[in-house]
Amino acid sequence: KGTLQKSILIGAMSSPAVLAAHRKLVVDTAIHMLAHGRREGAPADVMFLQEVSEDLRDELREVCQQQAWSCTFTEPSRVPGKCAAITGILSRHPFEEVEAMQVAENKKSRRFATARLVDSPIWLVSVHVPHERTKGHGRRRQPAGDAAAGEGRGGGDGDV
Q: What would the DSSP string read from start to end of 19-36?
């Protein structure tokens, strides 16, 4: 896997056609999960999203408005060289409060979307968990027990 191959792959993944297809897949999945659920079961109450682009955020906001669903998103970092990925929360139920929570670890600061449903004491937090490097290979893996995405109702195994 040389530099040329990596460059070609990144170029392909960043092409407008691929990005548009990805946005459509995520939006269609969000609509399906919040309206119908998995395998036509009960719809998800809440959906947590990580690494959302501004274009995808705008499309999801529009869908939520059309469906009378709630959504909240963090603002992307405007600092050059910093990760501009957005976290978000979508819900079929109304939010009573929304905030962006900032967490500093070591010298890195991350922002997470948070919300509280009407008449609920529970805060929802959409987190973006960094991966750890494994010994010897430089590969990244997600630590066991870190379920950074779920679909409410105890989901957790369905990233969007």
A: HHHHHHHHHHHHHHHHHT
Q: What is the pLDDT of residues 42-62, one digit of tens each?
A: 999 999 999 999 999 999 999
Start-to-end CA distance of the chain, whole Å, equals 28
CA distances from 30 to 13, 37, 61, 72 (A): 21, 9, 11, 14
- How far is residue 88's CA from residue 109's CA, in Å, rounded to a whole number? 17
Give 106-128 pLDDT, tens digit per residue: 777 788 999 999 999 999 999 87
What is the Cα gyration radius of the chain?
A: 17
- With contact defined as beta carbons under 8 Å apart, do 79 and 110 qualify? no
> pTM for the full model?
0.74
What are the CA-CA distances from residue 51 to residues 18, 44, 82, 130 (Å)? Answer: 16, 20, 13, 12
Q: Which residue has the tokens 């449903």?
A: 117
